[in-house]
Amino acid sequence: MLALLLAYLPSYSFSSEVVYGSTQNAAFFGLNWVMSNVLPQQAGLEVGSVIYQYTAVKDESADMLVHVQNENALGDGYIFRETDDWSGLPGNTINKIVRVNNIPIGFWGDGSIEVEGDGSVVNPNVIYTYKYDPCFDAQSDPSCPGYIPPIPDPPPPPPEVYNALNDEAVKEATEETDPELYDRDNRRRREERSEEGKRLERGLAAAENALNISSELAQDFMIDLLANEARFDPYFVQTIPGGVYTEAVTLPVKDIPDNRRGLRNNLAQQLLHEQMVESQYE
């Protein structure tokens, strides 16, 4: 009967993302067991159901309660407890599956089968079904998304930094440099920059003087033009030949008749307008 239940459980299929499985018989060695020895210690594991089977041995008239239970590892009481009441019943074998809605592994404390009253339990079999994501902890597998390679212990030594001032070849080249030659080069560069600056100043001064001279010449030329009034006389003595141009086109003096076609169109539009206004009032 227990094998048939396991065969029809949907949780016993495997997926490429989530792993489903079941434990061995937790009560194989007795009526008390430690869950760390039963469930795989996998991060993110959740228990989906508890399947158990046992045989109750008792007199039919005796009172007897059987508790299949797990302590709450993170608090008081039990995280799972299923009670079978055998009072007034003859001994028999029971097979039961109890779903627990995916309780995380951290809550599952030690398990046991407890008997209250007169009687005993034989051939117990307790199985837990579970599921987990192998990549719940991304560091568990290099193929998991978000995996970060661990830093080796101890960490690698820092890279050696090259300092050119400590290089023997650089030191020899520095020692062979003539300080006077270095100072002479710097002095020559300063003199060249100074001479170039002087040439630039002279060029700017010459340009400014040229502008001043040109502006004075232009002003004198304009004054001479304004003072020379005789040059404007020829424009005043010239005359343009012309006369009176009379209108050659004349219009006859008589009444122009109205356009009968336009009149009909106007009347038709007026009638249409009145009909539209009347239709709105209606």
* Through-space gap between termini: 90 Å
Number of strands: 8
Q: What is the overall pLDDT average?
A: 81
The run of helices and strands is: HEEEEEEEEHHHH
- Architecture of the domain at 2-140 in CATH? Sandwich
CATH class of the domain at 2-140: Mainly Beta
Helix content: 25-40%
Instruction: Tell me the number of helical segments per DSSP (H or I, 4 or more residues long).
Output: 5
Q: Report the sheet-strand fraction.
A: 15-25%
Please give the order of strands in the largest beta sheet.
1-8-3-6
User: Pairing-aware structural class of the strands and helices?
Assistant: alpha+beta
> Any idea of the CATH topology of the domain at 2-140?
Jelly Rolls
Report on this model:
A 4-stranded antiparallel sheet has the order 1-8-3-6, with no helix packed on it. A 4-stranded antiparallel sheet has the order 2-7-4-5, with no helix packed on it. The protein has 282 residues and is of the alpha+beta class. It has helices at residues 2-8, 168-175, 179-227, 233-237, 260-281, and strands at 19-22, 32-33, 46-57, 64-72, 78-85, 93-104, 108-117, 120-132. Helices cover 32% and strands 25% of the residues. Among the domains are: 2-140, Sandwich (Jelly Rolls), CATH 2.60.120; 172-222.
How would you describe this structure in keywords?
282 residues, alpha+beta, Jelly Rolls, 4-stranded antiparallel sheet, 8 strands
